[in-house]
Amino acid sequence: MENNEQKPDFLFDKANYKILLLGIAVIAVGFILMSGGGSDNPKVWNESVFNFTRIRIAPTVVLIGFGITIYSIFKKSKPE
After folding, report:
1. Using one digit for the tens of pLDDT, what is the confidence trace for 45-77?
2. If 0-12 CB within 10 Å is exposed, 13-18 middle and 19+ buried, where does residue 34 land?
3. I need a surface site. Which of 8, 33, 68, 75 has the fewest CB within 10 A?
4. Which pTM was predicted?
5. What is the DSSP letter of 50?
6. Is the Cβ–Cβ distance between 36 and 61 less than 8 Å?
7. CB-based burial of residue 66 (10 Å sphere; 0-12 exposed, 13-18 middle, 19+ buried)?
């Protein structure tokens, strides 16, 4: 009696999914760095909106995260 059970075919390898999760985590860190800087009083201007971290570093981190995610999609799977 043969076992006709098939192993599920995933689109990517395990390594691809790990890299994908890493890229999503980096994107989340970039958005967390971008957040904040608001004010409770709309008549008071908060200069921290133009902080170097929010203007330069956070968008760069988000773009790096998107690059990692794209890399994980295009990375070739190892032949079995």
Report:
1. 878 888 899 999 999 999 999 999 999 999 887
2. middle
3. 8
4. 0.80
5. G
6. no
7. middle
- Per the listing, tokens 């330069």 go with 56
Distance (Å, rounded) from C-alpha 21 to C-alpha 59? 19
Both tokens of residue 67? 């690059």
CB within 8 Å of 74: residues ≥ 6 apart: none
CA angle 28–51–33, rounded 5-degree value: 10
Alpha carbons 5 and 7: distance in angstroms, whole number = 7
Interaxial angle between packed helices 58-74 and 14-34, expressed in degrees from 0 to 180 and rounded to the nearest 10: 170
